[in-house]
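Morning, I've got a small favour to ask if you have a moment. I've dropped the whole record in just underneath, so have a look.
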Amino acid sequence: MQNLPADQREQTVAMQIKVGPAFAYGAIVVGFPVMAAATAGVFLFMFRTLLGAELSFRQVFAIVYYSWIPLLFGSVMALAVKLIKNPEEHDLQYPTLTNIGAFLEPASTPKWLMSLGTSIDVFTLWVLALLATGLSVASRKISWSTSFTTVLGTWVVYVLMKMGWAAMFG
């Protein structure tokens, strides 16, 4: 953007302003169910293949959707802070101090460490507990501790992949 001439930069910004909101709504409407389906597929594989649970995709998909409700609370809380506070008084990237990454200095912290810090979040831990509870109850034969260990282990693999991506390309 900085290398573009002023007229092309203005055209690009105008196009982003015009298309951005529609893209954001589309990403929410399409992206959320797709991510939930992918997450449900991973947990269905883990619980059926590794633990022998008799779960259906519909059950796991519903459990994933309901367990993500705390993320909605976190988003509403962040939106409220952004609307109430003056943007100059707080960090817009981390409006609520619910993860470790909010306490790290982005300029001096390695990207992989920022990725780890932002992954360890109060709402994420709440979601993991809800996922473990739902999957344990739905399977009826798997204990909560086994379910939580499986959910936590899957999440740790995801975080490690995210950290690796940030270390290579961040």
In short: The chain has six helices and no strands.
